[in-house]
Amino acid sequence: MKTQLIDTIQALHDYKTTLKPEDSIGLVPTMGALHAGHLSLIQKSKAQNTHTIVSIFVNPTQFGPKEDFNQYPRDLQKDLFLCSTNGVDAVFAPTIAQMYPHSDTITLAPPKNLGYVFEGFIREGHFSGVLTIVLKLLHLIAPNRAYFGQKDAQQLLLIQRLSHDLFLPVQIIPCPTQRDTDGLALSSRNIYLSPQERQIALKIPATLEAIKQKIQEGQTQSAALLAIGKQMLQGLDIEYFAICDHHLSPLDTIQKDGTIVLVAAKVGKTRLIDNLWI
Ligand code: AMP
C-alpha cells in the first residue's frame, strides 16, 4: 500500500475532503526516525480506525537552546517506506514555516504542577512546545483518536490534561513502551549510544524490572524501592528517579493502578528516560 505524503496544510485539507463521514482517523504524532515503538502506535491506530495518519515534524519549540534539534535524526524516505509497509494511509510532514507562520506566536502554558516538575523542570519550555504543536496537529487533522507512548509518561499525562481541559473532541490512547531485545526502551536517540554506553544504559530497564519484581513480592514502600534502585543505577548520571502518582506527586506507598516509577539519566552525552507504570 502506498502512503500518501502530505507536506502542506492545503494538501491536508484536500486529503480530508476525500474521506467519507463514516470514516475515522487515528493520528500518530511523531518526530520521525521511526522505530518499532512508533510502529506499535501505528498498529493500534490501524486496528481502531479506518484511516491512520502519521505526522512527522521535528518541532523546534520543544527543544532547548542547548539540546539536539540540529542533530536529531531525520530520514523521511526511510520513514515513508516504513509507513507504506505498515499500512499508513498518509504522512503529514509540514515545514516549520507552515506550522509556525508567525515568529511572535501564541503558545500554550502547561499546568503549574504537572508541567514544571521532572522533564518540565529540566527542559525549560519543553512542554509548552509539545502542547502547542500537539494542539495544532489535533486541530488540523481532527482525528477521532490520537496515540501516545507511555515511554514519555509526563508528556502523555499532559496531553490527557490538554484534551480534558480544552474539551478536545479526541480520544487520547496510551500505548505501552516497546523495548529492544536487551530491554532498552526504543528511542530515536539510542543511535547516539556507543556499544559501551549502551551496556551502561541497560542498568535503567534492569532497575525498573527489579522494582517491578519487588512490588510483586509485596514491597510497597517507595523509600525501600528507591534505595534498591539507586544501588543498581550507580555509574549513571541520574537526573531524577522517583515514585509518583498520576499527578506526579511523590508517593510514600505504592498505589495499585496509580503509580509511575520515573527515571531520567545521562549516559555520556545521551539523555535517556524510562518508566514503569504500576
Ligand atoms: P517521538 O518521535 O519520540 O516524538 O515519539 C512519538 C511517539 O512515539 C510518542 O507518543 C512517544 O511516546 C512514542 N514512543 C517513542 N518511543 C516509544 C517506545 N519505545 N514505545 C512506545 N511508544 C514510543
List keywords for this structure.
3-stranded antiparallel beta sheet; binds adenosine monophosphate; 6-stranded parallel beta sheet; 36% helix; alpha/beta; 10 helices; 2 domains; Pantoate--beta-alanine Ligase, Chain: A,domain 2; 278 residues; Rossmann fold
Structure description:
This protein is α/β, with parallel strands linked by helices. It has two domains: 4-175, Rossmann fold (3-Layer(aba) Sandwich), CATH 3.40.50; 188-272, Pantoate--beta-alanine Ligase, Chain: A,domain 2, CATH 3.30.1300. It is built from ten helices and nine strands. Helix 6 crosses helix 7 and helix 9 (203-216) packs antiparallel against helix 10 (222-232). Bound molecules: adenosine monophosphate (AMP). Adenosine monophosphate binds at residues 30-31, 37-38, 40-41, 148-149, 151-152, 175, 177-178, 185-188.
